Amino acid sequence: MTLRVVFMGTPQFAVTSLSEILAAGHEVVCVYTQPPRKAGRGQSLTKSPVHQFAEIMGLPVRTPESFRKPSVIDGLEALDADVACVVAYGQILPQRALDAPRHGCLNLHASLLPRWRGAAPVQRAIMAGDTQTAAQIMQMAKGLDTGDIVMSAVEPIGPNDTAGTLFARLAQTGAQLWAPVLAALERGGLQATPQTGEVSYAEKIDKAESKIDWTKPAAQIDCEIRGLTPAPGAYFLHGDKRVKVLKAVPEDGEGNPGEVLEGERIACGQGALRLVTVQPAGKAAMSFEDFARGYQIKPGHQF
After folding, report:
1. Among 16, 31, 79, 240, which one is least packed by beta carbons within 10 Å?
2. Which of the residue ranges 31-45, 130-144, 184-198, 202-216 would you say has the lowest mean pLDDT?
3. With contact defined as beta carbons under 8 Å apart, do 201 and 118 qualify?
4. Domains present along the chain, CATH in parentheses
5. β-pair type (117-118, 241-251)
6. How large is the average pLDDT for residues 60-89?
């Protein structure tokens, strides 16, 4: 027996899950994803990664702007689906949509719920200095990531992890949960456990957070740099030009916050940060040593 599945997702993170659901032999009757958006220098309309993958696989695709229109939910109900699998879709589903499939909607979320409910759980976990996170599938309910957990896989956060590396691992870890979850649903053995613990929210990343505040401790700045890599990227100003920091290492050091010290280090509110790789605006990534040499930045310079 196979399930009739509706898949809802948008970014590359969700493509891996869609692939695993197909590999498990389930019938994906329709894929919902965000409408094409303008992207790139030419600002041409670009289909989402899920949209592109679904077309390659010959799956029907729908791209409603929202589920506030009754006709959109009418269309979902008409699919006669057993379940909807939701992965980073990017839209809020009203209760009628959640109830449309026979077994409701299941959502893959990248955190140890109820910690980091919301839009940016991977980035916030790294920025907060967390040492672990998880991929969890929950039964969707009204409210922001409030549903009961049906399966979970804990993922450690290493000292060199960036949002990019952690996203990649969680995409694989989370995708591998779908086959056993859907198998349990088929045989009527899917069990859900209510969330317990302190709730925290992963607010969407604000661009203002990207500017490095050298008065913070070096360890905290390092977490923020890694959590903002690869996008939108943490930066400091050299004159009026932005310089992204792609890699840094917290070390000992004393000086005025933002002061350049010996050994490619920048003094912070506590300790110092050794800058390894930077990227000036409009240029390729380079070592901080090369950047400092090219712009004649010496110890004592103040950022």
Report:
1. 240
2. 31-45
3. yes
4. 4-202 (3.40.50.170), 207-294 (3.10.25.10)
5. unpaired
6. 97
Q: Which of 47, 50, 43 is nearest to 19 (CA)?
A: 50
Whether residue 225 is predicted with pLDDT greater than 80 in this model: the reply is yes
- Burial of residue 66 (number of CB atoms within 10 Å: 0-12, 13-18, 19+): exposed
Residues 161-220: tens digit of each pLDDT: 999 999 999 999 999 999 999 999 999 999 999 999 999 999 999 989 999 999 999 999
Pull the structure tokens for residue 48: 């989402």
Reported as a pLDDT band with limits 50, 70 and 90, residue 43 is: confident
Predicted pLDDT at 41: 74
What are the phi and psi torsion angles at 238 (to 5°)?
-115, 105
* pLDDT over threshold 80, residue 1: no
Sign of CA dihedral 15, 20, 23, 29: negative
pTM for this one? 0.94
